[in-house]
Amino acid sequence: MPLEVGKVVEGTVSGITNFGAFIDLGEGKTGLVHISEVANDYVKNIKDYLMDGQKVKVKLLSIEKDGKISLSIKQATPPKPKTIKPAEVDWNKSEDTQSMSFDDKLSRFLKDSEEKMQSMKSKNKNNRKGNGHSKKAYKE
Predict the structure, then answer these.
(1) Sequence-distant (≥ 6) Cβ neighbours of residue 1 within 8 angstroms
(2) Local structure of 110: helix, strand or coil
(3) Which residues of 86-117 are buried (b: 16+ CB within 10 A; e: fewer)?
(4) Which of 25, 76, 125, 137 could cross-link with 57 by S-S, CB 3.0 to 4.6 Å?
């Protein structure tokens, strides 16, 4: 099967270096997965992610004229969906936000935000009152 840029194929890790991993693609072809293309996370030690003889799916990024093949593991697999933390504000309090206009949503957001800011300011003000000594007592 001929290798084509953009295709996802399966290969076997045939060597690991500090800058990447060599992948045996069969038919005497070997490509390199640079360390930056191993995972979506920062990879400090490639051996934490790959080991010799491991089967991996790789995407062919490029095939140079001199025969060098660039590969990517992270582009061969779909990224994991990011988890989104629920917002503290419950925007579905009493009405359907889908039917609200943008201006109404913005107005509601600003009102809630202002209420929270006032609440935080009053808490900070209470915390800064001091220990009951007046300034005059220190001057005398």
Answers:
(1) 9, 27
(2) helix
(3) eeeeeeeeeeeeeeeeeeeeeebeeeeeeeee
(4) 76
Q: Give tens-digit pLDDT for 41-71.
A: 898 999 999 999 999 999 999 999 998 999 9
Q: List the domain boundaries for the chain.
A: 8-72, 89-128
Tokens describing residue 137? 């007592």
Residue pLDDT, tens place only, 119-135: 888 777 766 665 555 55
Protein fold of 8-72: OB fold (Dihydrolipoamide Acetyltransferase, E2P) (2.40.50)
- In whole angstroms, what is the distance from residue 31 CA to residue 1 CA? 15
Place of tokens 């003000």: 125
Dig out the tokens for 43 from the structure.
């990879």
pTM over 0.70: no
